[in-house]
Specification:
The protein is α/β, with parallel strands linked by helices and about 230 residues long. It is built from eight helices and ten strands. The two termini are about 30 Å apart. Bound molecules: adenosine-5'-diphosphate and magnesium ion. This is Putative ABC transport system ATP-binding protein.
C-alpha cells in the first residue's frame, strides 16, 4: 500500500541544508498496524506528512497504492487525502465554533456528500466512538479524550483505507490514551491500515510492528518483531 524508496527531505537553513529524513526505505502493507517511535526532532512528523501527501520529499519515490504520488494530479491528491486517508493529531484540530457532529461532517462536505446522508454518517461515526450523547457539544465542552474520539470519528467517517495518527495520545492521560488506542486496534481488525507516531512504548505496544526513527534514519523493528515471535 505504502512504499517509500530512498526518501530524503531537507530544508535550507541559512547557507546550510539540514537533512531531516535520510534515504528512507519503507514498505507498509494493507491492513498493517505500525507504530513509529523516535525522539523529538527525529523526523516523525515530517515522515507522516509525506505519507499523508501533505508534504513532498526532496528526493526519492513514494508509491501509494502502487502509483507514484508525484504522478497524481493536485485534484487526485486532494481526493486521496479526503477519501482514502484519515488524519488524527495530538492537539485534535477540531474547529471550535462547530459542534462535535458538525466537526465530523466536515470531510463529507469537502467530499460533496448531501446533508441528510452527511448527518446520518456523522451520527454513525460518533456512535462508533461512543459519543452519541455529545453530538451537539462544542469542543471546549468536551474532555481531551472525548475531543480525540470526535477527531477519530471525523477521521473514519469517509471510511478511509489508511489512518495516520501523529502522537494521538500525547495530550491525554494514560487511561484515556489506552482507550483511544483500543479504537485504533478495533479499526485495524476491521481492515484499516493504521500508522501511529508515539513516544510511549506502552502505546506502541498496540501496534504489530514498531519502526524506530533516529536523526532521520529508519531502524525498522520488523526483524525484532519476528525474533520476538520465535522466542515466545
Ligand atoms: N519547515 C521546516 N524548516 C526547517 N526545519 C524543519 C522544518 N520542519 C521541520 N524541521 C526540522 O526537522 C526536524 C524533524 O522535525 P519533525 O519531523 O517535526 O520531528 P518529530 O516529529 O520527530 O519531532 C527538526 O529538527 C525540525 O526542526
Ligand atoms: Mg512531531
Amino acid at each position: 500500500m505504502i512504499q517509500l524508496q530512498s526518501i530524503s527531505k531537507s530544508y535550507p537553513v541559512g547557507r546550510n541544508v539540514t537533512e531531516v529524513l535520510k534515504d528512507i526505505d519503507l514498505i507498509i502493507q494493507q491492513s498493517e498496524f505500525a507504530a513509529i517511535m523516535g525522539p523529538s526532532g527525529s523526523g516523525k512528523t515530517t515522515l507522516m506528512n509525506i505519507i499523508g501527501c501533505l508534504d513532498h520529499a526532496t528526493s526519492g519515490s513514494y508509491y501509494l497504492n502502487e502509483k507514484l504520488v508525484t504522478g497524481y494530479s493536485e485534484k487526485e491528491v486532494a481526493h486521496i487525502r479526503n477519501r482514502d486517508i484519515g488524519f488524527v493529531f495530538q492537539q485534535f484540530h477540531l474547529l471550535p465554533r462547530l459542534s462535535a457532529l458538525q466537526n465530523v461532517e466536515l470531510p463529507m462536505i469537502y467530499a460533496g456528500i448531501r446533508k441528510k446522508e452527511r448527518r446520518q454518517k456523522a451520527r454513525d461515526a460518533l456512535h462508533q466512538v461512543g459519543l452519541s450523547d455529545y453530538a451537539v457539544y462544542a469542543p471546549n465542552e468536551l474532555s481531551g479524550g472525548q475531543k480525540q474520539r470526535v477527531a477519530i470519528a471525523r477521521a473514519i467517517v469517509n471510511q478511509p483505507d489508511l489512518i495516520l495518527a501523529d502522537e494521538p495520545t500525547g495530550a491525554l492521560d494514560t487511561t484515556t490514551g489506552k482507550q483511544v488506542m483500543a479504537h485504533f486496534k478495533q479499526l485495524n481488525k476491521e481492515g484499516t491500515t493504521i500508522i501511529v507516531v508515539t513516544h510511549e512504548p506502552g502505546i506502541a505496544g498496540y501496534a504489530d510492528r514498531v519502526i524506530t526513527i533516529q536523526d532521520g534514519l529508519l531502524l525498522d523493528g520488523n526483524d525484532i518483531g519476528r525474533s520476538r515471535e520465535t522466542l515466545t
